[in-house]
Write a structure and sequence with these properties.
Order of helices and strands: HHH
Structural class: mainly alpha
Helix content: 40-55%
């Protein structure tokens, strides 16, 4: 499906929501996996995306998640 297809948008939202812990944002896999830790199952692989919790992109994503929960 194309990225702008409504079904793709809905599916991406559903899948991504499983990586967010609304009670403990800082423990959400959407934030911890790109740091290279925080998962019991690291078999997925991937790269370290954020240099640390002070990384501007990490901070932006974290703030975006918090703002969405308010």
């Amino acid at each position: 499906l194309p990225l702008d297809d409504p079904c793709s948008v809905d599916w991406n939202f559903i899948v991504t929501s499983h990586f967010i812990n609304p009670r403990r944002i800082d423990e959400s896999l959407i934030l911890t996996k790109p740091l290279g830790f925080g998962s019991v199952d690291n078999t997925h692989g991937g790269a370290v995306v954020f240099a640390g919790t002070a990384d501007p992109n990490y901070v932006a994503l974290r703030n975006w998640l918090i703002d969405g929960l308010l």
